[in-house]
Design goal:
The complex is a heterodimer of chains A (148) and B (97).
Chain A: E1 6-10, H1 17-31, H2 38-55, E2 63-70, E3 73-81, H3 109-116, E4 119-125, E5 130-138
Antiparallel strand pairs in A: 1-2, 2-3, 3-5, 4-5
Helix pairs in contact in A: 1-2, 2-3
Chain B: E1 2-6, E2 12-18, H1 23-30, E3 36-47, H2 49-64, E4 68-74, H3 76-85, E5 92-95
Parallel strand pairs in B: 2-3, 3-4, 4-5
Antiparallel strand pairs in B: 1-2
Helix pairs in contact in B: 1-2
Classes of the chains: A alpha+beta (148), B alpha/beta (97).
Amino acid sequence: MKDAVADAKFARSFDSLPAIFGFTAQAFARAGVDPAIRQDVDFALEELFTNMVKYSTGSKADVRIELMPIEGGVEVTMTDYDVEPFDVTKAPDADVKLPIEERRPGGLGLHLIRRLLDSIEYEYSKERRQSRITFRKTNAAPPGLARA
Amino acid sequence: MLSIDKSPDGTVVISGRLDAAQAGAAQAFLDKVEGTVTLDCRALEYISSAGLGVLLKTQKRLLAAGGKLRLSGVSRHLQDIFGYSGFDQLFEIEPLR
């Protein structure tokens, strides 16, 4: 990513969440990004970051987050080191039409991200054992990700 | 930060950010409520899937005992999250006016 307005690494722990939210708040303010989209950016960051913490337990490396302003919003890249591949764009949607007796907590994070973001891409480098997720969020009209 | 407390009229007032780091505290509080409970969400700035799990678990427990959890003062953003999650079919939701 070029010209990231903010670039930081975070320890793989839920305790890093306040620092991540502080990071986005500062970056949004510094770059003059529309604060109305920050909740969705924080939501995506939290869901993706906590997935990395929960499921890539073999890695001790920090997670890198870069944020760059784009027209009407931001592009965010998260890099996870020393991990197995997990393509977040291929995870199945949750069945949100189930009756409450059959609903179980969990499984909504990636389902919701696909509806809140403009785009999300996943790359994996086998040589470097590195996952890279790039997502974009703008204040423009929804561009066609799943909304139902 | 997150704050959750019961007001004198019995409404539970939640404010701040209900994220994965705060979900345990919110769940511990809501595990103690009984009957039909209104959760005032006017000052709830943010909720993640961990927070949605807290609400779902509470609703399942209360419904099983003949009560329920109602959500009031729900912002446009939270309405979107609840709608995409199917929670608008599981909870009585009163939008923020």
